[in-house]
Design a protein that fits this description.
Number of strands: 12
Strand content: 5-15%
Helix content: 25-40%
Number of helices: 16
Strand order of the largest sheet: 1-7-6-5-4-2-3
Order of helices and strands: HHHEHEHEHEHEHEEHHHHEHEHEEHEH
Bound molecules: pyridoxal-5'-phosphate
Shape: globular
Distance between the termini: 59 Å
Length: 399
């Protein structure tokens, strides 16, 4: 299809996957039902022969889930033609299904060093109990990944998160995918921080994208959800998506419905999130009480060039270092507009202290190796007026 015929992402976010049922409802109803009826035995035979499509039971599928999956697959697959997705009851249900679908006992997973806490725990503690071993590559360069892969020829999955939580380090997806594919491994990218609006890993050669839809995709802080998207529809439909039926990590129809509506404004939200975050990051970077600001959009970010190449915007997650625990505590006790809470990607600005909250499970040594000091604060810049966010940060940082 020529560019001129192709709908843009803003349009797809609103219209892709939408259900228009016989009621004529403009916004699809919520099919709040656990089971589906058949008219007679012939209807069952037709469905079994693949002649008709039918929902049977809401663990297997529900219209709102299908609508959301189609919309997200359209956005993540935007540059590659097509992709397939399944929606899960949480980001962690999605991540575990992706890993269980791609690796078996005897296989190995290589992951980057800094990861979302629960993904870190799943890969380093839980999967090994089932015979799926794992190791980390230290450093962000493709050479470091290649060295690690050469040590583990049974690697089936390379697991990446970029930008990474909470230090805002980046991984070159295209270069990593090339290295991984040459060694016979597939690449999974957690795209929660960037969303398909700012980064589409499948376009850069990744095989699978995972999301916590709890964050920007839904955007309003009202649900817990997750998604797996794959370029290879067979991989998704045969190896990953069926696991939702047997592990049971399903989302409710209502949560899918809310998320589908949230996703419609993602393009608009991400644009303003990026504008606000750039202003906040510049303010933090020039403040004398701030030791360091980590935001890929700052020219001083060590991977700013990679971010500019790989992303269509720098996102709204940032971290800044106040030097020590006391300074961080003083700041967090004084914020008024911004809210002290984990999670991210909401319309409200949220701040948190990784060492005591999201990354508390790591050992102090593990945190130090990952660059998570006691003075580090993570901020998810919201959609309030940037001036108001900055004024609150300013008063909380003042002497
Ligand atoms: C929140 C989050 C997850 C886990 O998702 P849940 O919806 O909380 O299960 C995974 N990865 C990243 C980057 C996250 O921020």
């Amino acid at each position: 299809m020529g560019d001129e015929l192709r709908r843009r992402m803003e349009t797809e976010a609103i219209h892709a996957g939408e259900i228009h049922d016989a009621s004529g409802a403009h916004i699809a109803p919520i099919y709040q039902t656990s089971t589906y009826t058949f008219k007679n035995m012939q209807a069952i035979e037709d469905w079994a022969a693949g002649e008709t499509e039918a929902y049977i039971y809401s663990r297997g599928g529900n219209p709102a889930r299908t609508a959301l999956a189609d919309k997200l697959a359209t956005l993540e697959g935007f540059g590659i033609g097509s992709a397939a997705a399944e929606i899960f009851g949480s980001g962690m249900a999605a991540i575990s299904a992706a890993l269980m679908g791609m690796a078996r006992a005897g296989d190995h997973v290589v992951a980057q060093q800094v990861l979302y806490g629960s993904a870190d725990h799943l890969i380093s503690e839980v999967l090994p109990e089932y015979g799926i071993t794992s190791s980390r590559f230290v450093g962000l360069e493709p050479e470091a990944l290649d060295r690690e892969l050469s040590q583990h020829p049974n690697t089936k999955v390379v697991y990446l998160e970029t930008p990474a939580n909470p230090t805002m380090t980046l991984i070159d997806i295209a270069a990593s995918a090339e290295v991984a594919h040459a060694r016979g491994a597939r690449v999974v990218v957690d795209n929660t921080f960037a969303t398909p609006l700012l980064q589409r890993p499948l376009e850069h050669g990744a095989d699978v994208v995972v999301h916590s839809t709890t964050k920007y995709i839904n955007g309003h802080g009202t649900i817990i959800g997750g998604a797996v998207v794959a370029a290879d529809t067979d991989l998704l439909e045969e190896s990953i998506a069926p696991l939702i039926r047997f592990t049971g990590g399903v989302p409710s129809p209502f949560d899918c419905w809310l998320t589908n509506i949230g996703l419609k404004t993602l393009p608009l939200r991400m644009r303003q999130h990026c504008v606000n975050a750039a202003a906040v990051a510049e303010f933090l970077d020039s403040h004398q009480a701030v030791v360091a600001t980590h935001y890929p959009g700052l020219a001083g970010h060590p991977q700013h060039a990679l971010a500019a190449r790989q992303m269509d915007g720098f996102g709204a997650m940032a971290a800044f270092d106040l030097g020590n625990y006391e300074a961080a505590t003083r700041f967090l006790d004084r914020i008024e507009l911004c809210t002290l809470a984990v999670s991210l990607g909401n319309i409200d600005t949220l701040v948190e202290h990784p060492a005591s909250m999201t990354h508390r499970v790591l050992t102090p040594e593990g945190r130090a190796a990952a660059g998570i000091g006691d003075g580090l604060i993570r901020i998810s810049v919201g959609l309030e007026a940037a001036d108001d966010i900055i004024a609150d940060l300013d008063q909380a940082l003042s002497d």
